[in-house]
Amino acid sequence: MSQDENPQVYKSNALIEASYRLSVAEQRIMLACISQVRRDEPITDEVLYSVSAQQIAEMSGTSSKQAYRELQEAALRLKRREVRLTQEPNGHGPKKKVMITGWVQTIFYVEDEGRVELRFTKDMLPYLSELTEQFTRYHLSAVAKMTSAHAIRLFEMLAQYGSVGRREVCLDQLREWFQLGDSYPVLKDLKRRVIDPAVEQINQHSPLQVTWSQRKAGRKVSHLVFDFAPKESAEPALEKKPKQSGPKVLTSYELSKLARPGESEAAALKRLGAVLA
Questions:
Q1: Domains identified in the chain and CATH numbers
Q2: 151 CB contacts (<8 Å, ≥6 apart)?
Q3: pLDDT tens by residue, 28-47
Q4: Is 178 exposed, middle or buried (0-12, 13-18, 19+ CB in 10 A)?
Q5: How far apart, in Å, do the first and last CA atoms of the chain sit?
Q6: At what angle do helices 24-34 and 64-78 cross, to 10 degrees?
């Protein structure tokens, strides 16, 4: 793991909004290795990243015995995990073809040392390295103690909109991103099993304080609305930005995500009390 006491995770926004499903143990391995990716030089798919059960135990606050067991099981599954990407990295727009790729090309489990070594796939690297725009960064400690995979994903989606403090997510889109399939078809079950536990974990373990509500299209709930802000005592765990004295400043990308269906750019800016960057 990085020698930095509080390493940062960098991800393309396209990867944050990709469709995939990883367990908590798998997420911890991936994020610990992603936090080691060099930011100041090109990298290849030959670079080997490593994380040990002891490191996982320390960052997550779990026992070493549990971390050893989960690390071995997660390592065996990670090679088969896939991610579905529809956007190019660095804000280069939609892909001409939907890409389904793996996270890692090779993974080793060093049993005597309780350690995993892995290489990212060539197609994954542009979403993790040399990111110049439309990416999100946060400290690994912000999610390290979460025990819900959905909480980790939701936290990243909120951190992506950290300068706004609000994110509105289409229910169907959330289901696709989380790869929920036919699980929790009834909204109250989705709230009870996915949304409420995720928000509770974010409020408990992360530097964000979150509340949420819902928006209807006709009689049917179509969107979930998350309002959030840094906890005063935990602000250093997020990448801090200067406070704005005037209206919120949004990029065209952020505005496109916050605008309601059929809403004009001017109307959306007025409703949000914002201006374009």
A1: 1-145 (1.10.10.10), 148-231 (1.10.10.10), 242-277 (no CATH)
A2: 143, 197, 198, 199, 200, 201, 202, 205
A3: 999 999 999 987 778 899 99
A4: buried
A5: 37
A6: 80
